[in-house]
Design brief:
Elements lengths: L11 H11 L2 H20 L4 E5 L3 H15 L4 E5 L6 H7 L6 E3 L8 E5 L11 H13 L2 E5 L21 E5 L17 E5 L9 E3 L19 E5 L4 H13 L4 E5 L10 E3 L11 E6 L7 H12 L4 E3 L2 H5 L12 E3 L3 H8 L6 H12 L2 E4 L4 E4 L5 E4 L11 H14 L4 H19 L5 H11 L1
Parallel strand pairs: 1-2, 1-4, 2-3, 4-5, 5-6, 6-7, 8-17, 9-10, 9-12, 10-11, 12-13, 13-14, 14-15
Antiparallel strand pairs: 15-16, 16-17
Cofactor: K(+); Mg(2+)
Subunit structure: Homotetramer.
Organism: Sphingomonas rubra
Length: 451
């Protein structure tokens, strides 16, 4: 069972194409079912297992898993929604020599395995399925989903029929968008990948711990990266971003605008466009607390006119003309939350991954589409997805902290997509270090411990 970090993410269509290219689908189902059986045996220990099988190929995986568990001497029962309807599932069901119970009449077991419906589901599940399934899940000590929790849409994370939450989801061959995208991801529990030996190339991957530059004997504050944070109407937001940049590893941070007080390591200078001309600046962060008045427009214009890499957040996103990014040679990273994204790019179509990729192509910049799931997309079609954000990040200033951390990773010389993904990873890990009921100042401070 492989953690999802850095693993490829495939849509249902891409997964089917990979399976077809691999060939011998019967052997592939055998491999999948046996892998599920091995994983369930590890998770269940000696506890009896009940496997729920649907009529399609996800159910076929369940039949193979049940037969493999029984052959290994494990106490296992099987309940089916309906007879198998695909050739692969019928062949798999023939290997199960035990009794096939009906879902409606099945009695609970300590371990419940959901092999009802997998990728490709596009309809509601009826009460005749959901009611007994929820009853059995409520009585189980462990609920395991095969590939996906049944009732969710693989590609966009929509919930078609609310499933009982799984403690573990065993992703077959590759991750699917719904393993990371909300609201579906909240029903998947801990996701673990089962490697089936299928080549599954993808330009979209789950987020992973970053590799960031470390200081060495010859390092000094400017080789660590210099970040300039443009202040504005709400000085505290800019200062919070500046603090986060320092805590995320920048060697020198200057706040351009009003404000005073700690930390004393923060360099404070009055705002002037000339301050952005310093060739040592590795990244400019603009937007946190900027405001939306004429002065804010002037500061954004000055930042866009520089040849420095930019992190554009908050108020600056509401003022931004995307066409201004077209002629810039230096990298730009936009960090909108859902409301800012809609204001800048419109509603869009498709999954959050699709919409963020389209936005990155439109802006010709890296787009970090924040939220309970975060999608980071590049204009060249690459994407990184971070799921399961800490719910306590729903606090004022957390976005300012992410903007500052992004400035630090970008100023360190890391490529823009990697810098954005690194900042999102650091931000999420810092939130978990903070525990409950933290404020954004705590979050910024925790970045040092994460680094």
């Amino acid at each position: 069972m492989i953690p999802p970090d850095g693993q490829p993410i495939l849509t249902a269509a891409a997964m089917r194409a990979a399976e077809q290219a691999h060939g011998d689908l019967s052997a592939l189902m055998d491999r999948a079912g046996r892998a599920v059986a091995q994983a369930v045996a590890r998770l269940a220990g000696p506890s009896p297992v009940l496997i729920l099988c649907g009529p399609g190929n996800n159910g076929g995986d369940g039949y193979v898993a049940a037969a493999a568990l029984a052959a290994a001497g494990h106490a296992v029962r099987l309940a089916a929604v309906a007879p198998p309807t695909t050739d692969l599932a019928r062949a798999a069901a023939a290997r199960w020599t035990g009794r096939v119970e009906t879902l409606a009449n099945a009695q609970p077991a300590p371990v419940l395995v959901d092999a009802l419906f997998g990728t490709g589901l596009s309809r509601l599940l009826g009460h005749a399925i959901t009611a007994p399934w929820h009853r059995l899940a409520a009585a189980a000590q462990l609920h395991v989903a095969v590939d996906l929790p049944s009732g969710i849409a693989s590609d966009d994370g929509a919930v078609l029929s609310t499933p009982p939450p799984a403690q573990v989801t065993l992703a077959l061959a590759a991750l699917k968008p719904a393993h990371l995208l909300q609201p579906a991801a909240r029903y998947a529990g801990t996701v673990r990948l089962l490697d089936l030996g299928i080549a599954a190339p993808s330009s979209c991957h789950a987020i992973a711990a970053p590799t960031l530059p470390e200081p060495g004997p010859d390092s000094h504050k400017f080789t660590r990266g210099m970040v300039a944070v443009v202040g504005g109407a709400m000085a505290g937001a800019g200062e919070l971003a500046a603090l986060a940049a320092m805590r995320a590893g920048a060697g020198y941070v200057v706040h351009l605008g009003d404000g005073q007080g700690p930390p004393h390591a923060l360099v404070r200078k009055p705002w002037s466009p000339a301050a952005l001309d310093d060739p040592r600046i590795g990244a400019v962060v603009i937007g946190p607390g900027l405001g939306r008045d004429a002065a804010a427009h002037t500061r954004l214009d000055a930042a866009l006119a520089t040849d420095r890499p930019l992190v554009i957040d908050g108020d600056a996103l509401h003022l931004l003309d995307l066409d201004r990014l077209a002629d810039r040679q230096a990298a730009a990273i936009l960090t909108p939350h859902a409301g800012e994204f809609a204001a800048l790019f419109g509603k869009g179509q498709g999954s959050k991954i699709d919409r963020t990729l389209a936005a990155a192509a439109r802006a010709r910049a890296i787009v970090v589409h924040k939220g309970p799931d975060t999608v980071i997309a590049a204009p060249d079609g690459r994407a990184v997805v971070a799921g399961d954000a800490d719910d306590w990040l729903s606090t004022a200033g957390s976005g300012d902290v992410l903007a500052g951390a992004t400035g630090a990773t970008l100023a360190s010389g890391v490529a823009a997509l990697d810098a954005a993904a690194a900042a999102v990873w650091l931000h999420g890990r810092a939130a978990r270090r903070c525990g409950r009921s933290f404020i954004a100042d705590d979050l910024a401070a925790a970045l040092s411990r994460v680094r």
